[in-house]
Every structure is written in C-alpha cells, then in structure tokens.
Design brief:
This protein is of the alpha/beta class. The protein has helices at residues 3-10, 34-44, 74-82, 101-109, 120-129, 144-154, 159-173, 188-203, 212-221; strands at residues 23-27, 48-50, 54-55, 70-71, 86-92, 95-100, 113-117, 134-140, 181-184. It has one domain (3-8, 21-205): Rossmann fold. Helix 6 packs antiparallel against helix 7 (159-173). It starts with a helix and ends with a helix. The structure holds guanosine-5'-monophosphate.
Length: 223
C-alpha cells in the first residue's frame, strides 16, 4: 500500500485506492470566518496541505513569511506571473495575489489535496484550468451585523480598510452561485464538520479514484 493510500485508508476515506488529489477552494468575503475554517480543516486532516500564495501586500502583525504568504515586491510578482509560475492570479484590494504552480501540481499528482484561500477570481481561473480537480466552497456570514463585528474586532486593519472590506463584501458575495457548496458560518464547529464532510465525499468520487479499475479487476478475478 502506498503511503498516501495508507493515510487515506486510515482516515476513513474508503479502501486503499490510488486517487488524484483535489483542489479544495474556500472563498468568502473577509470576516466570514474562512481562515479559521481553513486552519481547522488542515489540523483535522493530514492529507490536505495549504497553498501558500504570493502577494504584494505588506504582512499584517503576526503574519510570517512563507507561512501565511510569500511576501514579494511588485517586480518579483510580475516575474513570476510572466514566467508562467502562477496557476492563477488576481488583483484584490489594490494588491496582487497569486498561486504558485509547482507545489500544487506536485501535490495533486501524488494524491495529496490542496486547500486554497483565494477569491472568486482565483476560483474561476482554477475551474477553467483544472475543471475536474476543483471543489469550490463559499462561506457566508450569518448576517451583515456579524460580518461587521468580526471585521472590527479583528482589529488588524485600519478603519478605512474595514469600511472598504464591508463595501467589497457584497460584490464578493454575489459570486456564490459559482460555487459547488455554500456554508453559512453561524457556528464554527458545525461549519468545520460540514467542510470535512464535503472533503470526505469529494474524495470518494469515482472519477478521482484512478486506481479503481485495477481494484475492481483484482476483486473480480478473486470472485
Ligand atoms: P488578505 O489580504 O485578507 O489575506 O486576502 C484578501 C483576499 O485575497 C482574500 O479574499 C483571499 O482569499 C484572496 N487571496 C489570497 N491569496 C490569493 C491568491 O493567491 N489568489 C487569489 N485569486 N486570491 C487570493
């Protein structure tokens, strides 16, 4: 049994059948709780890794280079974008963000799943490039008031940025029909359980189980 198949097996994702990794995209307006949800999914499941984006935005207090983002200047970003090193990229709130291609391709070809905290523009690009591999989840706040409270208490951004993000929330939310699943994040534990349930179900999709034909052939020959 390969290491990956063994991990899958142990974590209840079905029999040890080799499969292609999936791209698990989580989008939401900022403040809907997406970052917490993503961290909890990563902590709960060893077969999914986070895609670390490159960005031209300045680090926030507590953010670490190459953990939260690869923080780069505009010149380096353009080099990566023009050198086809990015799987997708977008301009969000006056800064550039992009997904480095190589780690994603390596992960999914070895059967590991990758989690993306990217916006609707990134979700659209990945859906076009790798339609069979993406699973798209949109996280909604339970109400406008809750969203505003979360943005204010996060307190890492100046008030003008908070105001800008509130205004942007409505336009980000308008993209919800482009996603496969929607989680209304009223209670974090329920949302984490939903996010993990989606992951488990998507891993069991027949089209992703590359080793299924072999498995069934062996099964039949034993009957
Ligand atoms: P923040 O600056 O709050 O970390 O992120 C702002 C927005 O950019 C969030 O909606 C986040 O999901 C999105 N984002 C982060 N990285 C990427 C990326 O690599 N590509 C795209 N398209 N969006 C990203």
């Amino acid at each position: 049994m390969s290491k990956n198949a063994d991990e899958q097996h142990k974590h209840g994702a079905g029999p040890a059948i080799a499969r292609r990794g999936l791209l698990y995209i989580v989008s939401s307006p900022s403040g809907a709780g997406k970052t917490t949800l993503a961290r909890r999914v990563l902590a709960a499941d060893p077969n999914i890794t986070m895609s670390v984006s490159v960005t031209t935005r300045a680090p926030r207090p507590g953010e670490q280079q190459s953990v939260d983002y690869h923080f780069v200047d505009r010149t380096r970003f353009e080099q990566m974008r023009d050198g086809d090193e990015l799987l997708e990229w977008a301009k969000v709130f006056d800064n550039f963000y992009g997904t480095p291609r190589a780690p994603v391709e390596a992960a999914i070809s070895s059967g590991k799943d990758v989690l993306f905290d990217i916006d609707w523009q990134g979700a659209q690009q990945l859906s076009q490039k790798m339609p069979g591999d993406v699973v798209r989840v949109f996280v909604l706040p339970p109400s406008g008031d809750v969203l505003e409270d979360r943005l204010k208490t996060r307190a890492q951004d100046p008030p003008e940025i908070v105001a800008k993000r509130m205004a942007a929330a409505s336009s980000e939310i308008s993209h919800w029909p482009e996603y496969d699943y929607v989680i209304v994040n009223t209670d974090v534990e329920t949302s984490v359980a939903s996010a993990l349930a989606i992951l488990t179900a998507e891993r069991l999709k027949r089209a992703r189980l590359l080793g299924l034909s072999d498995f069934v052939r062996k099964l039949q020959s034993a009957l």
